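Researcher: We plan to redesign the surface later, but first we want a full-length starting point. Tokens attached.
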């Protein structure tokens, strides 16, 4: 098996960083194919904790080529700061292993300004964005006024492109009560960034396709999660890019037939950051337990995450729209100490009980779908030392098997703690597919 997609199966923050980091031991190339610095992936190596926002999670693996794909939007200052931060920590070969697509789009100061003004405006519907400029940057891309990283090679042409973009944004900025940013300040900053980023630019589509053709192992890493996907998520409370597995082909510039396996990541419970429907949300002691023990705070913004029970209809939905071949289950250890654990297995709706996710009805304020729960036993034993499923307490083992059976997707990995080694690895996605339960 050569190309593997790893995708979040919930509302993001599923622990993608750790899972990608574990499997990149076997990967030659790791590609980020969508999103921007609004998605932080936390890596814990020994006693060192590192949050990457733009860099692929494979960046800590010596010898692994890391690619920022053309489906991404990139804040040049954030990228440079992130590279420099890793170099200071001793990862001195980062720039030698990093390739930035010359077709990825730049996040510029006016994108961040518009994002912030919209979230603060009483006249617009707050989505709960990270205010990092991601949405406006993708808007520019769609209306063909975006600025691509490759344009950093020609600063004279870059000036013309940014002037046109500022003209397009001026009515919006003024209507929201903002001051127009300085063109000269933007250009001066980009001129400095260009000296660092231009040497990293390349045709990443050709690079990734070539690696696959040579039978190198390629891992394609998404951002956010399925239910935040622009087309398949809880619209309009979604991100601005394609977060599902299908976006991997577009965002990395390869054909869909190049992808061999799709691995979905799900927490043992559910979290969400920002506004939007969340049917299994808990606003009680159980929710507080999940937030406190799971350290459920945004890795980029620090915002407390909303917490709730696992939603199996949502997981089955993710399996369908992503074509999941396998699952990685994270943060099982967070449930330790809970006397009982609930799982949403269906929904009661005005049209009856359904076992699929009624995604278009979740924001129905008059008749919202009501989660139907099944209750399972909890456990008190610590599980961080488990390395095979039989090491888990009986109740924890039953919970894991219940998820696998109900989702009808085989488990490849169970995370029992934040560190690399605190993991039960059942199957390697680069060596073929396991049978469905």
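Model: Full-length starting sequence:
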């Amino acid at each position: 098996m050569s190309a593997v997609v790893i995708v979040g199966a919930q509302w993001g923050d599923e622990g993608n960083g750790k899972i990608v980091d574990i499997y990149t031991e076997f990967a030659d190339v790791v590609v980020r194919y969508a999103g921007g610095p609004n998605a932080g992936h936390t890596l814990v190596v020994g006693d060192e904790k590192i949050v990457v926002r733009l860099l692929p999670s494979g960046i800590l693996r010596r010898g692994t080529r890391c690619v920022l794909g053309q489906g991404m939007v990139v804040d040049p200052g954030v990228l440079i700061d992130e590279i420099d931060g890793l170099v200071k920590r001793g990862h001195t070969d980062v720039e030698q292993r990093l390739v930035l697509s010359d077709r990825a789009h730049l996040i510029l100061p006016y994108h961040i300004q518009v994002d912030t003004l919209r979230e603060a405006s009483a006249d617009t519907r707050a989505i709960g964005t990270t205010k990092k400029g991601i949405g406006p940057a993708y808007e520019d891309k769609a209306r063909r006024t975006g600025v691509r990283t490759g344009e950093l090679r020609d600063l004279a042409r870059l000036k013309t492109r940014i002037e046109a973009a500022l003209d397009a944004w001026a009515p919006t900025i003024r209507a929201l009560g903002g001051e127009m940013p300085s063109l000269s300040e933007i250009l001066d900053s980009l001129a400095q960034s260009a000296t660092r980023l231009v040497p990293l630019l390349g045709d990443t589509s050709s690079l990734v396709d070539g690696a696959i053709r040579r039978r190198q192992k390629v891992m394609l890493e998404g951002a956010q999660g399925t239910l935040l996907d622009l087309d398949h998520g809880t619209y309009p409370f979604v991100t601005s890019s394609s977060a599902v597995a299908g976006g991997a082909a577009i965002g990395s510039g390869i054909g869909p037939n190049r992808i061999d396996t799709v691995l979905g990541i799900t927490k043992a419970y559910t979290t969400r950051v920002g506004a939007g429907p969340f049917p299994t949300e808990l606003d009680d002691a159980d929710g507080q337990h999940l937030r406190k023990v799971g350290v459920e705070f945004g890795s980029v913004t620090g915002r407390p995450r909303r917490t709730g029970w696992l939603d199996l209809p949502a997981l089955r939905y993710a399996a369908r729209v992503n074509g999941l071949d396998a699952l990685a289950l994270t943060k099982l250890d967070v449930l330790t100490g809970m006397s009982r654990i609930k799982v949403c297995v269906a929904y009661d709706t005005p049209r009856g009980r359904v076992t699929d996710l009624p995604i278009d009805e979740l924001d129905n304020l008059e008749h919202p779908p009501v989660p139907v729960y099944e209750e399972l036993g909890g456990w008190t034993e610590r599980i961080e030392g488990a390395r095979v499923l039989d090491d888990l307490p009986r109740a924890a083992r039953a919970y894991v098997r219940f998820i696998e059976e109900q989702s009808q997707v085989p488990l490849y990995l169970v995370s029992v703690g934040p560190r690399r080694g605190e993991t039960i690895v059942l199957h390697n996605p680069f060596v073929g597919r396991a049978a469905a339960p």
